[in-house]
Structures are given as structure tokens and as C-alpha cells.
Design a protein that fits this description.
By secondary structure, the protein is an alpha/beta fold. The chain folds into 4 domains: about 55 residues, Phosphorylase Kinase, domain 1 (2-Layer Sandwich), CATH 3.30.200.210; about 260 residues, Rossmann fold (3-Layer(aba) Sandwich), CATH 3.40.50; about 170 residues, Dimethylsulfoxide Reductase, domain 2, CATH 3.40.228.10; about 130 residues, Barwin-like endoglucanases (Beta Barrel), CATH 2.40.40. It contains 26 helices and 32 strands. The protein has a 7-stranded mixed β-sheet with strand order 5-4-19-18-17-6-7, covered by helices on one side. β2 and β3 form a beta hairpin. α3 crosses α19, α9 runs antiparallel to α12 and α12 packs across α13. The protein starts with a strand and ends with a strand. Keywords: Iron, Iron-sulfur, Metal-binding. Belongs to the prokaryotic molybdopterin-containing oxidoreductase family. GO terms for molecular function: iron-sulfur cluster binding; metal ion binding; molybdopterin cofactor binding; oxidoreductase activity. This is Dehydrogenase.
Length: about 700
């Protein structure tokens, strides 16, 4: 007899509700849940692939140990003992920092990793910790820490009530939203336009989102800072700012006004390729809208001015009275409160050993990981722990990191696959698949465009002998404590922590785990509401606009302004998203990779002609760090002078065990991106705007 289960999809930030029909442990169908109050029945192709993940014969089910002949299965006890023995010995000989840690993006999609990862990793007491944050979203967090007092107090566009949405470097139709949890985004954009509102997209490519926007402005990669400065300068010079209670709670406004006075629209226009009058009109339209919001995502964050761009976006929203107001940007108030005063985050308390890059919240920029492995001396990384990450394909200069991993003394990975990174491991510890365990969206409810909550019960039974991710971290933690003579700390299952958190949260008078279980479709807690003035956590209880690092970085813009605009004939590289892909971890599923190839280099026809290249031919793309051969596709959706390769491909390394992915290998854009091409404020990787050469292969 079949049973229908209701839960959220965990594969991207949209957390869409699903109705999953099963018979025993067999999945019969996966559909959107029309009763989910947030996603309203919306579903994307990724959710359908949950069945492929569950049934994939190449997904690891038991711990694997590297042997001379390849790999062999071992018991959990043997695996825990081997890992802790090797890590403890390396730290005893070389110090705590000889062990590094890399946490991949899927960890925040799996609440057991978030609640229990540090049960083990914290015992390592290493400063060599890294994550996908510094190739993704670090600028958002740092600006929020500076302005609002907590790294997770990131204001979210109130898309359902705004009149004017200015979007830079984002493509939510492909990503389903990013640091903006927004399921069913197409209908939300159409509703915005239907009520007379306007969506303006600024992007070097006419993306899927730009194609349905009210207006699309092409911009050269890496020059968003010039556009944003021109906008802010116009708002000040034409007296388009608007008072608000939040703006009255700021400090340093006059300093910011003076600091941007030289960056007029006329001076910024040549750098970004958008005419000065168009920049000024954009500022007037934004300021003139009753409710407006400016939002920038990946294309803005992963460039050399990523932090400055995110700061400018916040300042633009603040001075126009569009922060903490309906229709502007608002701060979600999730049932599981993550922006607690106990752990606001910190920045630049120490620096990396080799290049001197600053830490953020206890993590160093991942662009430094390879050099920290390769460079001899005290503190050199000799062993590495990875969890749900594939940095060989997802971090800059992946070939260099690939070579570095080969020379480690020991490596352990918590992962479901033998992929481009874990093929270097000595031990791989696979957790249960997502449908085999419960889940709660700790992170993405904090970025949601509505206040919602849902507890997801397991759909399928836990296989005999398998461990959930949190159980793996607890097992490692207990074994490591025993090996190093430390007392093992008590712990409890993640669902109990969720129960305590929601009871202690802002809706604790009506929420508990039992209540969540009684509402399998999720609970709508209402639209986002103004709350900043009672939640701000800066030491001064004010929004400190005149951040010294940002005012100083404006001097870098002034000094480099002539270099921002691309030279004649120059090509700059950007990435791109696709709705059937998510980083590097969804290419071993036939229903996601089938159809037209998605890994070509996109290039404007005029740029092809100028290089005597033909649509469809093989070309070589070169940067300082390497080159790849790939088919080129003529596309007028690209701005001239801009080429695009998608992120996450390159499944052509020996030793991986993902047959379908290998059949659709593609090339890795991070074999071109440069670990030295950074935002110097944070060390965040600058993956967009890299200069490349394209020639016939």
C-alpha cells in the first residue's frame, strides 16, 4: 500500500514543499505540495532527482578505506579508530594547526552537520578551517556584522510587496534564490509586475531572470562598484535621500556622503559601460518608488570589490528609507533564532600563515588552502578533514589544490561519493541519504521572504548499519576524545535541539516539535515585519555606516578606476547557474544532465568573428593559472567582451566513481580562476571578471 509523505526539498535554498509517494522503501513519485503555504506547489527538476540520489548504486553506503588495490569497506568502529589515531598523531607531532578542515555548501542543507559538526571538529582546536563561504557569500556576512551587529542579520528583499526591485548579479530563476529563500520566484516576479512594479536586472548576461525583467542593463564583469557608486553619488547630489526611523539610527552618514562625492555618474559611466544619464535615471526611479529594494548576489559578491559592493547596496537601501520597511529589505524572524547575541561573528582576529589573509568567524579564505598545504614550515597543513565539499571543483585554481591534496599525509572525508576531492582521501565516511533522516531548515528560514517553519520527518527507513551525519560526528568526537585523553561531552539528537530552540524562539508560546509534527505542510508565520530597531546588535546600538575598511577601499577604486573598464579586445570570464544543477554535486543523475549540453563557453558572435572562431568549435581558454578546452557557443545573450563557463563541471579526473558525471564531464571553470585574484578586504575569491584569452584549440 502506498503512503504519501510531506517534507521540504533540501537541495537548494528555496526549500519547496514536496509530496513524496512511497511503497515500502520504494519511491513512486515526487510532486510539489500545493498545501505548502510557502512554495504553493512549486517544484523544480532538482527535487525529482531526490529519487536518483536515493537509488544511485554509486552512492556510498559504508565507510571506505583506501588500500593498494583501490577501496575496501570497513566497519564504523575501525573507521573512527583509524581517523582519530592518524589525526591525533599528526597533531601531537606537528601541532594542532597541522590538521585542516573544509566544510562544503551541503552542510547547511543538512541540519545534523550544523548541530553536531563541531562536536568533533571543535576538538581539533585548529585555526586552519575553511568553507565554501569564502567562494560564495562572505561579503554579505561581514557587512551585516559591521552594520547590524550580527553576521546572520542579512536583510532580505520583500519581493511580495515591493514596487521596484533592482537586482545585480543574481539569477533566481536558475538558482531558486540565494540568500533570498524564494520558492516560486517566477510567479512572484509576475505578481510584482502585475501590480505595476518593476524588476530591473543588471548582469553581463541576459540570464533567465533578465529575460523576464522589466528592464535589463548589460554591465562589464567586476565593475558593479562603479555603477553602485554612481547611484549613491546621485542620490546624495540630487537630494534624493529619504528620512526614516532606521536612517535616524545610523552614524557616519555625512562621512559617507563626503567619501563618495568624487564618484559621479559621469566619472563612473566609462568604467561600468552604462551611460551617466542612465545611471542617474536609475537612481531617480529607485528613489521615486514608494517601496524599493536593491539586492546583489553571486555576481556582485565574488569579484575584487565584493565587500564594497555589498556595503554600497546596504547604504543605498538605507539612505532611500528602504531598510526595515515593507516592500524594501526586511529581517526575517525565524522560529529557530540563529542571529543570537551570543555568537555575532568576528573578523581579522588572526591571519593565514602564508599570504596573511584575514579570518572571518574562525575560518580563513579558501583561496589560501592549497598554499597552506604546499608551503613547508610550522603550521603547514599535513592532514585534512572535508565534509560535503568538493573544493577541487569549487575553489579557485582547482588544479593546484588537486596537486596539494595528493601530498597530504592523511585525509578523511564525510561524503556520499568518491569525487574529484574525496578520491584523495584515506577514509570516506558516508552519511545516510536525505530522505532517510529528519531535517529542519536552520539556515534558510533565516533568509526566507516570509516567516515560515517546518519539521521534516524521514520518508524512508534508516538502512541497517548506516549512520546519520550527526552520528558520524559524534562517533568521531567520542573516539578522538578517548584517543587524546579528553572527557567526551554529552550530546543529544538534533530534533531535541530544534524543540528547545523553537520553544525559546519568538513564537515559543505556540510552537514546539510536537506542533511542527502536527503540521507536515509547514506553518506560515506571516509576512516579514520591521524589527531592526529592537534587534540591532552593534556595540553602539546604531548602524555604523562609515566603516573604516570601506572608506579606505574607496581609495582603491579611485586608484584603479582606469583599469576597471576592459581594454579593447579583452575578454572577461563569468560563471552561470542552471536550474538542473547545483555546484558540483548533481551531475551523476541522468534526469538532471540529460538534454542539450550545458557546459559550453558562451561568447558574443562579434567576439567570435574578431578571433576567426566558429560557433560550436573547440577552443582553448587560458588564464594565468591554466587552460581548458571546451566547445564555444555563439550567444547574443552575452555582453560583448564577456565569456561564460558554468561552475561545477570537470568530472574528468582519474579515480572518481561517478559514471554518469564522467559521461558529461565538461570542464572546470576553477581550472582557470586564480587564487591570487581576490577581494583584498576579506580574501574572498574573485571568480567573476577574470581576464582570459580564447583561441582555437
Amino acid at each position: 500500500m502506498s503512503v504519501t509523505h510531506y517534507r521540504a526539498c533540501h537541495l537548494c535554498e528555496a526549500i519547496c514543499g514536496l509530496a513524496i509517494e512511497t511503497e515500502g522503501d520504494r519511491i513512486l513519485s515526487i510532486k510539489g505540495d500545493p498545501q505548502d503555504p510557502f512554495s504553493r506547489g512549486h517544484i523544480c527538476p532538482k527535487a525529482i532527482a531526490l529519487q536518483d540520489i536515493q537509488d544511485d548504486p554509486q552512492r556510498l553506503r559504508q565507510p571506505m578505506k583506501r588500500v593498494d588495490e583501490g577501496w575496501e569497506e570497513i566497519s564504523w568502529d575501525e573507521a573512527f579508530a583509524l581517523v582519530t589515531e592518524r589525526l591525533a598523531a599528526i597533531q601531537q607531532k606537528h601541532g594542532n594547526n597541522a590538521v585542516g578542515v573544509y566544510m562544503g555548501n551541503p552542510n547547511v542543507h543538512n541540519y545534523g552537520s550544523m548541530t553536531h559538526g563541531n562536536y568533533f571538529l571543535g576538538q581539533l582546536h585548529t585555526r586552519q578551517r575553511y568553507s565554501a563561504t569564502s567562494v560564495d557569500q562572505l561579503p554579505h556576512h561581514l557587512v551585516s556584522l559591521w552594520l547590524y551587529g550580527h553576521m546572520l542579520m542579512i536583510p532580505i528583499p520583500d519581493i511580495d510587496h515591493t514596487d521596484y526591485f533592482l537586482m545585480l548579479g543574481a539569477n533566481p530563476l536558475a538558482s531558486n534564490g540565494s540568500i533570498m529563500t524564494v520558492p516560486d520566484v517566477t510567479k512572484r516576479i509576475k505578481a510584482l509586475q502585475g501590480r505595476g512594479g518593476k524588476l530591473v536586472v543588471v548582469d553581463p548576461r541576459r540570464s533567465e531572470t533578465a529575460a523576464i525583467a522589466s528592464e535589463h542593463l548589460f554591465i562589464q564583469p567586476g565593475t558593479d562598484v562603479a555603477l553602485l557608486l554612481g547611484l549613491l553619488n546621485t542620490l546624495f547630489s540630487e537630494q534624493l535621500t529619504r528620512q526614516s526611523p532606521v536612517l535616524e539610527s545610523t552614524a557616519g552618514l555625512a562621512e559617507v556622503r563626503d567619501a563618495v562625492a568624487e564618484f559621479t555618474a559621469e566619472r563612473m559611466a566609462p568604467a561600468c559601460g552604462i551611460p551617466a544619464e542612465q545611471i542617474r535615471q536609475l537612481a531617480r526611479d529607485f528613489a521615486g518608488a514608494e517601496r524599493a529594494v536593491c539586492y546583489g548576489r553571486m555576481g556582485v559578491s565574488v569579484q575584487r570589490y565584493g565587500t564594497l559592493c555589498q556595503w554600497l547596496i546596504q547604504v543605498i537601501n538605507l539612505v532611500t528609507g528602504n531598510v526595515d520597511v515593507p516592500g524594501g529589505s526586511l529581517f526575517p524572524e525565524p522560529a529557530f533564532e540563529v542571529a543570537s547575541a551570543r555568537r555575532p561573528g568576528h573578523f581579522d582576529k588572526w591571519r593565514s600563515r602564508v599570504s596573511g589573509l584575514p579570518e572571518f568567524n574562525g575560518e580563513l579564505p579558501v583561496a589560501a588552502l592549497a598554499e597552506e598545504i604546499l608551503t613547508p614550515g610550522e603550521g603547514q597543513i599535513r592532514a585534512l578533514v572535508t565534509s560535503a565539499g568538493n573544493p577541487v571543483l569549487s575553489t579557485p585554481n582547482g588544479r593546484q589544490l588537486d596537486a596539494a591534496l595528493e601530498g597530504l599525509e592523511f585525509m578523511v572525508s564525510v561524503d556520499l561519493y568518491i569525487n574529484e576531492t574525496t578520491r584523495h582521501a584515506d577514509v570516506i565516511l558516508p552519511p545516510t541519504a536525505s530522505l532517510e533522516h529528519d531535517h529542519y531548515d536552520i539556515t534558510f528560514n533565516n533568509f526566507a521572504v516570509r516567516n515560515v517553519t517546518r519539521y521534516n520527518q524521514p520518508v524512508l527507513s534508516k538502512p541497517e548499519g548506516a549512520l546519520h551525519d550527526w552520528e558520524i560526528f559524534v562517533g568521531l568526537g567520542k573516539a578522538f576524545a578517548a584517543a587524546t585523553g579528553q572527557p567526551a561531552r554529552p550530546t543529544q539528537p538534533p530534533h531535541e535541539l530544534v524543540d528547545m530552540a523553537v520553544r525559546a524562539g519568538p513564537y515559543g508560546d505556540r510552537l514546539s516539535l510536537d506542533v511542527l509534527k502536527e503540521n507536515p505542510h509547514g506553518i506560515d508565520l506571516g509576512p516579514l515585519q520591521p524589527n531592526l530597531l529592537r534587534r540591532i546588535q552593534t556595540e553602539s546600538w546604531r548602524i555604523e555606516l562609515a566603516q573604516p575598511a570601506m572608506l579606505q577601499d574607496l581609495q582603491r577604486v579611485a586608484a584603479e578606476l582606469a583599469e576597471l573598464a576592459p581594454a579593447a579586445g579583452e575578454l572577461r570570464l563569468i560563471g552561470r547557474r542552471h536550474v538542473r544543477s547545483n555546484n558540483s554535486w548533481m551531475h551523476n543523475y541522468q534526469r538532471l544532465v540529460k538534454g542539450k549540453p550545458r557546459d559550453q563557453l558562451l561568447m558574443h558572435p562579434d567576439d567570435l568573428t574578431a578571433r576567426n572562431l566558429q560557433d560550436g568549435q573547440q577552443v582553448t581558454v587560458r588564464s594565468r593559472v591554466g587552460e581548458v578546452q571546451v566547445a564555444v557557443c555563439a550567444s547574443d545573450e552575452m555582453a560583448p567582451g564577456v565569456v561564460s563557463l558554468p561552475h561545477g563541471w570537470g568530472h574528468n579526473r582519474p579515480g572518481i566513481q561517478m559514471d554518469i558525471a564522467e559521461q558529461h564531464a565538461g570542464v572546470s571553470v576553477n581550472d582557470l580562476t586564480d587564487e591570487r585574484f581576490l577581494d583584498p578586504v576579506t580574501g574572498n575569491a574573485a571568480l567573476n571578471g577574470l581576464r582570459v584569452e580564447v583561441v582555437a584549440a
